[in-house]
Amino acid sequence: MAGLIPCPLTLFVMTFAISRGVPGAGILFAITMMVGVALTLSSVAVLSILFRERLVHFFDSRPRLFDTISRAIEGAAGLALASVAVWQLTAG
After folding, report:
1. CA atoms within 13 A of residue 6's CA, in its CB half-sphere
2. Rounded to a whole number, what is the distance in angstroms from the first to the last CA of the chain?
3. Rounded to 5 degrees, what angle do the CA atoms 81, 82, 84 make?
4. Which position among 1, 47, 64, 84 has the lowest Cβ density within 10 Å, counted as fewest Cβ atoms?
5. Could you give the CA distance from residue 84 to residue 55 in angstroms, rounded to a whole number?
């Protein structure tokens, strides 16, 4: 859904290119932006799928390590939330 909304930078460059009389440069910029975003998003998607499979395999073979890491992450998140809450209460 987010891909259907044009990038503000692309709209600015297109408007600028049209006002300068070179709409081809604006279109070339928009195409370049589109290809760059598509390559970046597809690379992230493929790498996340590959990394997920390796990570699941790694943690399946070490359930105790997974339990320790997950508890540490939960504890750190709880401390961060509590710290923000205390900071908000004392700052205001």
Report:
1. 12
2. 38
3. 65
4. 1
5. 31
What is the token pair recorded at 19?
Answer: 């006002």
Identify the three-state secondary structure at position 5.
coil
Phi-psi domain of 9 (left: phi exceeds 0; alpha: psi -120 through 50; beta: other): alpha
Instruction: Tell me the per-residue pLDDT of 41-85, one tens digit each, with 9 for 90 and over.
Output: 999 999 999 899 888 888 889 999 989 999 999 999 999 999 999
Residue 1's pLDDT band (cuts 50, 70, 90) = very low
| Total-model pTM | 0.51
* Residue 52 host element (H or E): helix 23-61
Q: Which residue, among 10, 2, 1, has the nearest Cα to 34 in the 3D structure?
A: 10
The backbone torsions φ and ψ at residue 20, rounded to the nearest 5 degrees and listed phi first, read -90, -5
